[in-house]
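Posting here for the record, re: uridine-diphosphate-N-acetylglucosamine.
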Amino acid sequence: MKVLVTGGAGYIGSHTVVALREAGYEPIIVDDFRNSEKKVLEGIESLVGQVTCYELDCSRPVLEEVFRREKNIHAAIHFAAFKAVAESQEKPLDYYENNILSTITLLRCLLKYQVPYIVFSSSATVYGEPDTLPVTEESPRKPARSVYGRTKQVCEDIILDTLKSGAALRAILLRYFNPIGAHPSAKIGELPRGIPNNLVPFVTQTAAGWQKELVIFGRDYNTPDGTPIRDYIHVMDLAEAHVAALRYLERGGDKNIMNLGTGKGNSVLEIVKTFEEVCGVKLNYRFGERRPGDVEKIWADATLAEKELGFKAKRTLAEALLDAWKWQKTLTLNQAT
Ligand code: UD1
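Prediction output follows.
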């Protein structure tokens, strides 16, 4: 069964392509490689054999070509999006255009070619700073703090409104908490361009000497050690959750929104300490100012995904950090910049 994976050469996309293939699906990647690298395909293929890939921008009408050529696409998983928070504030039009148009273009193709299922990459960013923890799928969405966050909220609404219109489509919106780690083989992993925005790539690059020091953004939060808390989930767990979500849609599951987290929160300092311990490397770090827009603490109530999808994150934080480090060690500086 063919599953279209937009953004399939990206970080979560590439791991999901591997998980899909291992589950017996035939993933078809659509990626324009604006924020991903061609060599990711080699990594994927070294793990699961040849995979079809279309190099195109799925916010453009040319996406329809894929549906025309492939025929019988069974489902789509829509990862393709811009995702850098700070950049989204500088280039709002790029973010709205790319993230929203790609969702609309894909939905139009799904309806026209009678593809019955879509799995959408959403984010815990839609919850903003939650009033109660852990956050459930019923927790209110807060006005997003960034253009990036707003694009996720708008895309969620576009999909939900399409369902409400009576379209012959089933959908599930997956709200990711913080994906980290890499495939344990170290054949695929995260490839941030330039200076990483996210914590774990910054940690591994600091450990590798690519970055001089890690700055921990703030130590005066209302948390046990003063640093912010997040729910870090191994990217392979996340990838496998997409397979579970697809199967859920296939068997008629009717919940449209699902958190994907571990249900446990860890502070930035805990990440640093655990990394040092499991990887046996000392990190050069210091405390700095808070990063504007950061939330203090958030972690998932992961029970709905367990009940409905039968999905539970099974890898530990230590495993995730070790896999991230193994992946980092395979990289050379010019590969990532
Ligand atoms: C960030 C985005 C979020 C997005 C997610 C996607 C912001 C404000 N939020 O989430 O909208 O959905 O990425 O991956 O950018 N940290 C440091 N030093 C660093 C980097 C990070 O201390 O050099 C801290 C941050 O303050 C935060 C934690 O590490 O407390 C995790 O940061 P990050 O990996 O960027 O994820 P989020 O902030 O949760």
